[in-house]
Design brief:
Elements (H helix, E strand, L loop, with lengths): L1 H13 L5 E6 L4 H15 L2 E6 L2 H9 L5 E4 L5 H7 L1 E16 L12 H8 L9 H4 L13 E5 L4 H13 L1 H6 L12 E3 L1 H11 L3 E6 H6 L3 E2 L2 E2 L5 E2 L3 H8 L26 E9 L3 H17 L1 H6 L7 H14 L2
Helix pairs in contact: 1-12, 1-14, 5-7
């Protein structure tokens, strides 16, 4: 009861304070944050300005206190949060799809084993009619064309989550490239943000790249069928995203640190990721404004999240976040 009263005091007290919030970071959740901000302005007259600059930029800008909140798809570890005097909580769950542009190959028809995806981005598989691709795609007319990979050119939480998936899927990838917001790509072309990668895939025949599902849906791109951790084929849809998301094991003590790729379960889509908000511990008054916005989004934004292809946080996770706010923002 005391925690609920403390949170209520935070939200009510913030109503009289500043009415403009500036945030920056991950491109992964940007379509949803824009939608939430539009509705928040309509309903409350308060403004939230969000710049989609990539997770690396978001962490940098909040660490140097340029913005009121940062956004990152790579969760920041507890020790780093303490060092930079930051708070962290998830805002929504999304998924990364392997999108492609191959004439005559439709959405949800091309099957790619997880190790094959890793070998494509490692430059080991270079043709669309490679035997390793053909073996799982009887009946598809795969062209004798070079595969053009598309990756992020900026520091990216989407890249972090995608390369984490590749690292778990392939020993070769793990040994030679690893996991990171930026890696030394073996091949391909780079685009800035999910927007840039999406546009390059659309414009480049025989290309393949990784993007957040909302960008795939919005741009009517095709995505590959991938494998669960147990080897079952799964398409990129809400049911399979939810199946993976339910295995999230967050705690307030770890500031919700955790990765969701390759979760257990026969229907768990393999590249699911949460996206996180970062706040400076010392700016209590502005933090109250920021959490007022996200509390509004948690209460009113699930429908738009689903429409845009995201998975809303479970109610028990939202409540845990509210308790975290009450305990850490005075």
């Amino acid at each position: 009861m005391l925690k609920k009263l403390a949170l209520a005091a935070l939200l009510v007290g913030s109503a009289m304070a500043a009415d403009k919030i500036n945030g920056a970071g991950a491109t992964f959740p940007a379509p949803l944050y824009y939608d939430w901000a539009f509705n928040y302005k309509k309903d409350t007259k308060n403004s939230v300005n969000y710049q989609s600059i990539g997770s690396g930029g978001g962490v940098k800008q909040i660490t140097t206190r340029i913005v009121d909140f940062g956004a990152s798809d790579e969760p920041v570890k507890t020790k780093e949060l303490e060092k930079s005097k930051l708070l962290q909580f998830p805002a929504t769950i999304g998924s990364i799809v392997v999108a492609f542009n191959v004439e005559g190959i439709a959405d949800e028809t091309l099957k790619l084993r997880n190790e094959v995806v890793a070998d494509i981005f490692a430059g080991k598989i270079t043709k669309w009619n490679d035997p390793k691709i053909v073996a799982d795609n009887a009946g598809l007319k795969l062209p004798n064309e070079e595969i053009i990979t598309v990756h992020r050119s900026d520091g990216s939480g989407t890249t972090y989550n995608f390369t984490y998936y590749l690292t778990q899927s392939s020993q070769n990838w793990k040994n030679n490239f690893g996991t990171g917001k930026a890696v030394d790509w073996a091949c391909g072309i780079g685009g800035k943000g999910n927007e840039g990668v999406t546009n390059l895939i659309k414009q480049t025949p025989n290309s393949i790249g990784y993007i957040e599902n909302a960008y795939k849906e919005k741009n009517n791109l095709s995505a590959a069928v991938l494998q669960t951790a147990s080897g079952k084929w799964v398409v990129a849809n809400e049911e399979n995203f939810k199946a993976a998301a339910k295995y999230a094991t967050w705690t307030k003590e770890e500031s919700f640190y955790g990765l969701l790729a390759l979760q257990k379960g026969d229907n768990s889509y393999p590249i699911v990721a949460a996206t996180f908000i970062l706040l400076p511990k010392e700016k209590a008054q502005m933090n109250k404004q920021v959490i007022k916005f996200f509390d509004y989004a948690f209460k009113n934004g699930d429908a738009s999240a689903k429409t845009l292809g995201y998975i809303p946080l479970p109610e028990e996770t939202k409540q845990m976040i509210r308790e975290y706010w009450a305990e850490n923002i005075q």
